[in-house]
Amino acid sequence: MEVGKLSVEYRKDVGKSGARRLRTAGKIPAICYGAGADPLTLAVEPAKLMKALDPVKKTNTVIQLTVVGAPGGDQQLTVMVRDYQKDALRGDLSHADFVRVQLDKDVHAVVPVVLTGKAEGVKNGGIMHQVIHRLEIACKPHLIPAKIEVDVSNLNMNEALHVSDIKLGEGVRALVDGGSSVCSVTAPRAEKVEAAAAPAAGAAAAPAAGAAAAPAAGGDKKAAAPAAGGDKKAAAPAADKKK
């Protein structure tokens, strides 16, 4: 099986029971739509589908799809995988959606964002936060990049890179707001907390150790003396009254 080429069968047996029979036979149900044409229900061998995908571009691979037994005869379609589902327990493919594409018109794709280089802010102890890991773009099918690399070498502490800062290839445009943050470098929170807590702890400890302890010790002695004297004075009148 060549990358970018896939042969499938037109499927007449639709519905849940038909899908179960198809999966029992080692195939999965699929559908192909788009370009204003009627949808086609398909039967696909999942292993062949995976082999038809470029190992790097994956679902962004443009596929020449041969539909065997389609109404009106076999059809040759140019498609991409728009979506797919996997079995929740086994992780096997359970359904696939194909969309017809035209090589001279823009398509939507989602491409991984990879940060390259080491930011100056990170070298100085900052922490890198990547906000956007996958970017939705629009371009002609053959211009879809395998990944989008973003050089963060010049990013300093408390600075951010935005979608508008990314250098996309000619004919490629982002489908998200240009002001959206791709990544940023911030100071470590733990260091901020420790730096703020250290002066407060030192200031509070000095009075507590010196000022509070001395009065407490002196206060105990002064309080004890009147108590002892008071007991003696109270005893004397009591004796006079008895006399």
Describe this structure as you would to a colleague.
By secondary structure, the protein is α+β, with helices and mostly antiparallel strands. Helices cover 30% and strands 34% of the residues. A six-stranded mixed barrel has the order 1-3-2-6-5-4. Strands 10-7-9-12 form a four-stranded mixed beta sheet, with no helix packed on it.
Layout of strands and helices, then pairs:
Layout: E1 5-10, H1 16-24, E2 28-34, E3 37-44, H2 46-52, E4 63-68, E5 75-86, E6 93-100, E7 107-116, H3 120-123, E8 127-130, E9 134-139, E10 148-151, E11 160-162, E12 173-174, E13 181-186, H4 189-210, H5 213-242
Parallel strand pairs: 1-4, 2-6, 7-10
Antiparallel strand pairs: 1-3, 2-3, 4-5, 5-6, 7-9, 8-13, 9-12, 11-13
